[in-house]
Amino acid sequence: MQNRRRETTAMTRRVEDAGLFRMPSSSMVVVMTPRFRRNRRGDCIIEGFVVDGRNELVAVEVLFAGRRSRHVQPLLNRLARLSEDVAAEAAKAGRRTPSPEDIRMPIQAKGSWRNRFTEDADGLQEKFLQFAVAQWSIIDPPNPPRLFGERPVHEDQARPKPST
Q: Could you read off the pLDDT tens digit of each residue along the chain, which spans 164 residues?
């Protein structure tokens, strides 16, 4: 398959955001798990869950791409700490450590849905959704929320300029 991506060094904020956020942005609570990976471009992909229209949890990939991937470390640290705390509590109570899918932490996220495709073992394409995150905050009462990431460039330009 042909790689049509631009070199990372040739990427501007506008071009990056135009590729990531093609659909309108939406804001929602995403429940994160401590399972994550990095792709070959250095983007961080975390497994998470969202509530669908039938009030059921649906598994999704949550993408922190491009310049936003540099700001995801506090979230990864918090997920690792939560995982360690849950494992310690389970050991103290004499229970098995829960699987990573059962360790969950909510964040408030603003981003855009993307269609992704993979091939299964038979060579057939499977479609799944990926949520590309522009901005996020960790929901951690009683601590005040701290905003990470940045708005997509095209949303900044759509805002009316204050009159002087």
A: 555 555 656 677 787 777 777 888 899 999 999 999 999 888 999 999 998 888 888 899 999 988 888 899 999 999 999 999 999 999 999 999 999 989 999 999 999 998 888 888 888 888 888 999 999 999 888 888 889 988 888 765 545 555 55
Strands 44-51 and 57-64: antiparallel
Fold of 31-148: OB fold (Dihydrolipoamide Acetyltransferase, E2P) (2.40.50)
CB 30 within 8 A of CB 111: no
Q: Which of 73, 55, 59 is nearest to 30 (CA)?
A: 59
